[in-house]
Design a protein that fits this description.
The protein has 157 residues and is an all-alpha fold. The chain has one domain: AhpD-like (Up-down Bundle). The chain contains seven helices and no strands.
Length: 157
């Protein structure tokens, strides 16, 4: 639904340059591979998509998350991960905090040092770089889809 109108969302345009699509797909694949944890990659992409209100990406990443074995409990509680007790381990919590900090910058525009330090304590430098890259790629996809109003489940985008 489109906010406030009650009407089903329709795409403003389905045109996306093939080069842009290929570049983002390649960047996402490289980041996921370097992170080395498909379940965590999906949690990160879902959380960013929740924050960005991207129904298309939520629909897609929730499906993939289930395929790679993310539990329904984690998916159900992801939006409230900070209050979910031990549902998420410390590594997941650090990645989710970093996802939120990169996706919704503070007033200063920077990721808080404590958030970055918590992630750096749980990921080696290459994996942390891939995690930051993945967060940025999913944010780019979210903005491309939200900006063009691509609805969940769309096959034309």
């Amino acid at each position: 639904m489109t906010a406030g109108t009650g009407a089903a969302a329709t795409a403003r345009t389905t045109l996306l340059d093939a080069g842009v699509r290929a570049a983002l797909r390649a960047a996402g694949a490289a980041a996921r591979k370097g992170l080395g944890d498909p379940a965590l990659a999906e949690l990160v992409q879902i959380r960013a998509s929740q924050l960005n209100h991207c129904a298309f990406c939520l629909d897609m990443h929730l499906t993939v998350a289930r395929e790679v074995g993310v539990s329904e409990r984690k998916l159900d509680l992801l939006e409230a991960w900070e209050e979910a007790g031990d549902v998420f381990d410390e590594r997941e919590r650090a990645a989710l905090a970093l996802t939120e900090a990169v996706t919704v910058p503070t007033a200063s525009g920077f990721v808080p040092d404590a958030v970055y330090a918590a992630a750096a304590a749980r990921f080696d430098e290459p994996r942390l770089a891939h995690l930051v890259g993945l967060i940025n790629v999913v944010n780019s996809w979210n903005r491309l889809m939200v900006g063009r109003r691509i609805p969940a489940g769309s096959t034309r985008w």
